[in-house]
Amino acid sequence: IYRHCRLPVSISSLCRDRRLFSTRLRAPATSHVYDIHPEVREALRAKRPVVALESTIISHGMPYPQNLDTALAVERIVREEGCVPATIAVLDGRIKVGLSKDDLEKLARTGLKARKTSRRDLALVVSQGVVGATTVSGTMLIAHQAGIKVFVTGGIGGVHRGGEDSMDVSADLTELGRTPVAVICAGAKSILDIERTLEFLETQGVTVVSYGDSDEFPAFYTPKSGYRSIAHLKTPDACASLIKANNDIQLQSGMVIAVPIPSEDAPKDAWRIEKAVLDAVSEANTKGIKGKDITPFLLDRVKQITQGESLKSNIALVKNNARIGSRIAASFAAQCN
Ligand code: PSU
Ligand code: MN
To answer: Among 163, 180, 258, 290, which is disulfide-ready with 187 (CB 3.0 to 4.6 Å)?
Structure first.
């Protein structure tokens, strides 16, 4: 019980009604703020593979209607690979694990008006009964509460360029350090300081591996960043074994499985995107854009400057991650059953 709720025993022992206390924390499905979709709940009960998906990528990462189309396409891919998709978001103050088509539509249309919700925002968004789009950190923590081990997204947050002064380090990185969920992504965008991002992940105890034939850590639009993961794993089975070992050791920290963008989907001229990134970063500095607004600002500017080429690659890599992440989730379920 105490291991699951991860509270100091002194606090736990203050709670008289231990049965109620443990039930709530171990089975958030029964908690009044969590709405676990019946299909997701049934899959978890039967130990069938479930793949968590985030919602900031829908609200802030892409424009309508491409965001809705991509969200639906990603869910379809997850199903094709024999898994159940669980897109995570807060709708009218309720934490949803698994969204209906109407929920997805609502979120996609709400767009930037949805509150970007990382760990620090979650209680506020729930208490105010508003719409929250969960980031990697918010999605990871909810997935963990629900018992989901594998989470697919596009790119993780990181240490921003100049982060050594601004201290703008994404909550995604500390969440990875404290929550045992595997994040399948295409690495981190070069809007970030990738070298410092990897250093910070090491400090946080996060296992960072690349998927495929190379231990290059991918940089979202490009398969190479010039920096290395600690290893490369060639198959979904090998990735699933990593997740299983993390689980068996009871490491309470997460993993990054970085999947390079397929070469046919990479932008023709990666340098053009890189230049757009540099321009967008300097524009953000000039305009004084900071904090939670900077990532959406940079994503949007890069998209504008590259006239949609970045968006096309973005959609393609998310789909690829969904395919590989689902194979990993399926293999993990098979190894555990
Ligand atoms: N990077 C992307 N696309 C995204 C994000 C990051 O290429 O959509 C989103 C993710 O939800 C990520 C969040 O968790 O931005 C990080 O925001 P911040 O830098 O404010 O922590
Ligand atoms: Mn930040």
So the answer is: 258
Question: Which of 56, 168, 290 is the best mutation target for the ligand 1 pocket, counting ligand atoms within 8 Å of the beta carbon and taking the most?
Answer: 56
Q: From the CA of 294, how far away is ligand 2's center (Å)? A: 7
Check pocket membership of 171 for ligand 1, CB cut-off 6 A. Answer: yes
Q: What's the pLDDT at 273? A: 86
Tell me the pLDDT tens digit for each residue of 162-204: 999 999 999 999 999 999 999 999 999 988 999 999 999 999 9
Task: ipTM value, please give it.
Answer: 0.99
Position 271 scores a pLDDT of 82
Q: How far is the CA of 7 from the centre of ligand 1 (A)?
A: 29
The one catalytic residue in 116, 189, 292, 303 is 189
Report the sign of the C-alpha dihedral through residues 194, 198, 203, 205, in that order. positive
The number of the ligand 1 atom at minimal distance from the alpha carbon of 116 is 11
Whether 189 is catalytic is yes
Residue 141 in contact with residue 175, Cβ under 8 Å?
A: yes
Catalytic (active site) residue 287: no
Average pLDDT along the chain, 337 residues, taken 10 residues at a time: 45 41 45 92 97 97 95 98 98 97 97 97 98 98 98 97 95 98 96 96 98 97 95 98 98 98 90 88 94 92 87 95 98 96
Any ligand 1 atom below 6 A from CB of 121? no
Nearest CA to ligand 1 atom 16: 157
